[in-house]
Amino acid sequence: QVQLQESGPGLVKPSQTLSLTCTVSGGSIRNDQYYWTWIRQPAGKGLEWIGRVHGSGYTDYHLSLGSRVTLSVDISKNQFFLELKSISAADAAVYYCAREGTTEVAGRTHRYYMDFWGKGTTVTVSS
Amino acid sequence: QSVLTQPPSVSGAPGQRVTISCTGSSSNIGSHYDVHWYQQLPGAAPRLLIFGDTNRPSGVPDRFSGSTSGTSASLAITGLQAGDEAHYFCQSYDSSLGGSRVFGGGTKLTVL
C-alpha cells in the first residue's frame, strides 16, 4: 500500500518561499506509470490542483500559479518537493501530496485521478 | 469560483438514495475527459471514490456509483448510512486551462 507524508514549516512569513516535502513509502517514485502531485485546500473551501512531477523530472503546473511554483523530485530519497515563492495570505491552506494514477479498464485508459493521498499539512501565512 | 459546479449541500435519510451533480463545460466533461469523485470525511484527506466516470477502486462499496451525460456527471449513493456524511468533490481535466486538473466546489452530504 502506497503511503505519502507531507512535511514542512507550518508557518511562513508573507513574501517568503514555502518549501514542502512529500515522502513516499510502499512504492517507488521511479515508477514510470505515475505522477506525483500537490493539491491545496484553503480552510472551508474546495480543492485546488497545484501541479505534478514525474520521476523523470517532467512537470506540469496550474496556470494561475505561473512562475511562483516549482516541483522537483529526489529519486534516491523517494521524495518530491514543492516550492512556492512570494507567499501571501491567499496561499494559506492545507497542502496535500498525492499520487496521480492511471489504469486501463475494458480497453480504455483512465488518467488524472489521485488514488493515494497524504494526510495533509497546514500552512499558515503570518508575520 | 470552481470550474466544475456542484450543489453546496444535499441531504437524505438513512437507507435513502441521493445524487450529487457536477456540471462542467465543453473543455472538460463535455470533451469526454474522465470524471473522478472523492469523499472527504471531517478532518481527513480526500479518498478516491470513483475514477474514470464509473469505476470503483478496491474497497469502495457498490452503494456508490458514477455516471456522465453531456457536460455533467453524477454521483449516486444508495442505502445511505450515517458514515456517508462527508464532503464530496468531483474532478476532471480541462483542456482550456493548460491541462489543469479541475475540481468542483464540493457538496456537503448530511444524513438526517
Counted beta strands of chain B? 9
- What is the string of SSEs of chain B from the N terminus onward? EEEEEEEEE
Strand content of chain A: over 45%
Shape of chain A: globular
User: How many strands, what sense, and barrel or not for the largest sheet of chain B?
Assistant: 6 strands, mixed
Number of strands of chain A: 11
Note the gap between the termini of chain A.
39 Å
Mean pLDDT of chain A: 94
- H/E series of chain A: EEEEEEEEEEE
Strand content of chain B: 35-45%
> Assembly type of the shown chains?
heterodimer
Separation of the first and last Cα atoms of chain B: 28 Å
| Sheet of most strands of chain A | 7 strands, mixed
Fraction of residues of chain B in helices?
under 10%
Model description:
- The complex is a heterodimer of chains A (127) and B (112).
- With 127 residues, chain A is mostly beta strands.
- Chain A has no helices and eleven strands.
- In chain A, the strands form two sheets. In chain A, strands 2, 4, 5, 6, 9, 10 and 11 form a seven-stranded mixed sheet that branches. Chain A has a four-stranded antiparallel sheet with strand order 1-3-8-7, with no helix packed on it.
- In chain A, a hairpin with a 4-residue loop joins strand 7 and strand 8.
- Chain A is globular, with a radius of gyration of 15 Å.
- Chain B is mainly β.
- Chain B contains no helices and nine strands.
- In chain B, the strands form two sheets. In chain B, strands 1, 3, 4, 7, 8 and 9 form a six-stranded mixed sheet that branches. Chain B has a three-stranded antiparallel sheet with strand order 2-6-5, with no helix packed on it.
- The model of chain B has no long low-confidence stretch (mean pLDDT 95).
- The A-B interface holds A 37, 45-49, 60, 62-63, 96, 101, 103, 105, 108, 110-115, 117-120 and B 2, 33-34, 36, 38, 44-48, 51-52, 55, 57, 89, 91-93, 97-106.
